[in-house]
Write the structure tokens for this entry.
Amino acid sequence: AQKITQTQPGMFVQEKEAVTLDCTYDTSDQSYGLFWYKQPSSGEMIFLIYQGSYDEQNATEGRYSLNFQKARKSANLVISASQLGDSAMYFCAMRELTNAGGTSYGKLTFGQGTILTVHP
Amino acid sequence: ETGVTQSPTHLIKTRGQQVTLRCSSQSGHNTVSWYQQALGQGPQFIFQYYREEENGRGNFPPRFSGLQFPNYSSELNVNALELDDSALYLCASSLGTGLTDTQYFGPGTRLTVL
């Protein structure tokens, strides 16, 4: 089963409008972290926002907010007041701790991504 | 700018060759993770190094290996290159291995195997 599902291959939004990018996740862990990254055509993965599984408040970072619905296992990214520079690929990712040989490590598992295009 | 750098930017190799990719961590970060991103896909976890030891590995064969140095910079080595190894290779550094330790990515190395 997919751990991270992003059902929108592509999204279009008018400049200055808000847009929501969907993300659902699958885990049986109680402790996990959810991240959103932006990847412009240059390739660099840019960190946008983080939500911990125990955080009661939705995370916000400037124009970015994360609509966290734990019972539904969804972590949608909301971008307010879209700008032309927001056009990029957006990835939702989850971090769970994996125990191996007495140590733990936290790899990121990414979704397939959503391409956002902002129209003037 | 994350402070994470990678070299080279682009690389072209032929099947069967070996390649070494390099990553310099953000200052103060002791953990480096490597990811492979095929065209049109999300990144896939290769392995993670914490204080010079590999402490986690994804579903990649042993011909993918790595090193982390005392200054926490890192190398990814791939032997016996295959066509399917063509991808963007991303490294990410973080303060630690915990859930809340955000991974900051470098610009990537684009590898083409002919």
Remarks:
- The interface with chain B takes residues 4, 31-33, 35, 37, 42-47, 50, 52, 91, 93, 95-98, 100, 103-113 of chain A (CB under 8 Å).
- The CA atoms of residues 4 and 111 of chain A lie 5 Å apart.
- The radius of gyration of chain A is 15 Å.
- Chain A has a mean pLDDT of 93.
